[in-house]
Amino acid sequence: MTKGPCWSTPLALLAAGALFAAACGDDDDSDAKTDKAGSGDTAECPDGDSVPMALPYEANQPAGENWRLGVEMAVAEINDDGGILGCEIKLDPQDTQADPDVSRQVVAEQVEDEPFVFLGTVFSSSTIVNMVEAQRAEIPMFVGAEAPSITDRKENGDNDFIYRASFGADTAADKFVSYMVDQGVKSVDLIYKNDEFGAGGRDAYKAAFDEAGIDVGLDIQVQPDQTDQSAEVTQLAGGDADAIFVFMTEIESAAFLDEYQAQGLDKPLYGGDVLSAASTIELVQPGAADGTVTHAGLNASAPVFADWKKAYADFHPDADPPDHNSIKGYTIVHVVKETVERIGEFDNSKFSDTLHCATYTVDDEPGLLLDVSYDANGDIDRESYIVEVVDGVGKIVETLPPLDNLDDRGC
Amino acid sequence: MSTFIQISFSGLATGAIFALAAVGFALLWQTAGAINFAHGEFIALPAIVMLLLGEDRPTLGIPEWVPGIGGTALGGPLPELGIVLAFVVTIPLAVLVLGYLFKVSLVDRLLTPGGNDIPLVIASLGLALTIREYLRVEFGARPEKFPSVFGTDRWRPGGIAISADDVGVLVVSILVILALQVFLRRTFLGRQMEAAAQSPDTARVLGIRVDRMILYTFAINAVLVTVAALLVAPTTHARWDAGLSLGLVAFTAAIIGGFNQVRGALFGGFLVGLLQNWSAYYVSSAYREAIPLLLLILVILWRPQGLFGIAEERRL
In chain B, which residues have their Cβ closer than 8 Å to the Cβ of A102? Predict the structure, then answer.
């Protein structure tokens, strides 16, 4: 990954100019924000002239691959721009094979190299296992996983070093269930994938449904990689709820949508962001995904990501179009950059004090793409989207504002 | 009643694919005494090749000026024709690679008549891993949609949802298996193969070229896995790890039905497909995979040769 985006050269020249100015002692930084080091500032790098970052990821899964591509794009841009506080980011990508045990082994080995931060993993079932190693080594870990238990301090041993790149399912549930109530949904049947991701999402949404007064009827699980869901959809056909809520990953979501269409069911379908993701839609029969309504924390079709998508296509010309995991990977590197610049030095023990209960804006760091807040547990808050699939394309029908409730979330 | 028919029909369609895959296990065991744990990957590989022949010829190094045999595979006016042509081209490739090369490079070297078959089992596990990782590295981790050769039509007679794909899979699987049975039982060559499988020494005395018969079996197995790939890929999608679960289920089905009888493996495939759906609906979807495995344990305990298998004795 050595190729940079088309704007990399001018950015590099700007960065070189800034470094030159700093080197000449012309440190006129009076306009910079008081809580952030200027872009031309430098600091002692953790490893020579670079800062090592570990990238454990699921190379055998599209989610992990897209995460890596997003991370690598951000790192290349930042390095072209002079790095973080003058230090070049050096990535150590390691394949965890989407296997929890392997992922723990990989992270434990990467700990030995003393990375400044961990960027990954994406799979909840892996993250829940490997984050213990980063916590033990007191190294901040930024993950794309969404299972609620990951940032639950009662379950994660009061982990002060874990941060999300996207909504946890519980935060997403708070936002989406309010929307569903507004749509007049009074009861739902649930179907979910039986793994850490799906079961965690099911628990979070069930709690949110209970709190919102939405009755939950059928509660059905499918197994990972289960492509024949006829029996489960037949069960749903016998349910009497207003709507059906689906929480699975791509393969299972596609199989579900095809069977749902085949059996001619027509109840409203709501779900987690994967249900309407482009990577799901392209696997289903024509029209099978139409009408599904989902909550998307990040959706590549949002207008705010239009320029970024073009830059991504230039940077990764042979890759598939980006999805939410690509955006997660890209933005999280910029969260790290912004945090380090606010600290003013490479001291990862100060991440908790700096990032917890903080709000970063795109004015501070354009690479964030959206303003983002972190609560006291490492969960994020930012705007999100209601996506409806129309004619095989996910369209944003509403933008939900941030919850803006850090006071209620330990801050 | 319509619910029972609905889930039974879907179970049979899924079971037909399990049956095709399970028959491959039984064939190789019968004729060569070989267990191939890369069987699932042997199904995943042709699916990806067919897709590449259909839409991504540069990846295979095929020059642009060569007419695209499957250029319409994914969205042209005749998508079914494109994938059928890709299938026809894949058959000889599969016979060469998954039949001939597999036999001469691995099976012949590791399997000794009446000897220890553990080295081949281990080697096939390694082969499965190698194929999976190769597919992932070379073609990517992202699943790709694979068009159904039977189209996307759907009907609802009597409130029962039936898709053209389900009907096509069921009919083609049954026809292929019937054709295989007729070939083995009613043709001279087929009977020679059966004889070679049942008693190689006697077959040699009778002038049957046993090695050639075994090679034919591997070739037939290669054709079967390619057919299975064509039928299963629209459901599982073309992806690097599609063979993992399919291979395990087919192996389970073959043991339940009877590893040493084609009809046993066939029955096992259909039974597992039906059991999965009945379990999911009438018990709980949490037990969809557990109940066939429970049956597997019961069969191993009380009828280790399988429900339709024949008890074998081995002289030590």
Answer: none
